[in-house]
Amino acid sequence: MTTYAIEGLHCDGCVKSVTRAVERGIPGTKVVVDLAGGKADIQGSNDEAAIRKAVESAGFKFVGPVAA
After folding, report:
1. CA-CA distance, 16 to 46, in Å (whole number)?
2. What is the share, in percent, of the chain residues with pLDDT greater than 90?
3. Within 13 Å, how many C-alpha atoms sit on residue 25's CB side?
4. What value, to the nearest 5°, has the Cα angle with vertex 20 and ends 41 and 37?
5. CATH architecture of the region 2-65
6. Between 48-57 and 12-25, two packed helices, what is the crossing angle to 10 degrees?
7. Any residues with CB less than 8 A from the CB of 34 and at least 6 apart, and which?
8. Which tens digits make up the pLDDT trace of 7-37?
């Protein structure tokens, strides 16, 4: 699992949009979005380019991996 920072998350609808975009864009992934923390834990794919594309297609800014 990798955690990525995402900017622009303001509500539960944003959480659902990011979750749906990543899970549909990259089949087999599991996404848990932390609204308050502005990040998403993504399991099942480490294809950063595909994750960026999915997040940005949902209208949010993909910042990148969060250091552990």
Report:
1. 20
2. 93
3. 21
4. 35
5. 2-Layer Sandwich (3.30)
6. 130
7. 40, 41
8. 999 999 999 999 999 999 999 999 999 999 9
**Residue 24 to residues 8, 18, 21, 49, 56, Cα–Cα distance (Å):** 20, 10, 5, 15, 13
d(CA 38, CA 64) in angstroms, rounded, equals 11
Determine the average pLDDT of the residues in 49-63.
Answer: 96
Q: What does the alpha-carbon distance between residue 32 and residue 19 come to, in Å, rounded to a whole number?
A: 7
Q: What is the pLDDT of residue 46?
A: 87
Q: Does residue 68 surpass a pLDDT of 90?
A: no
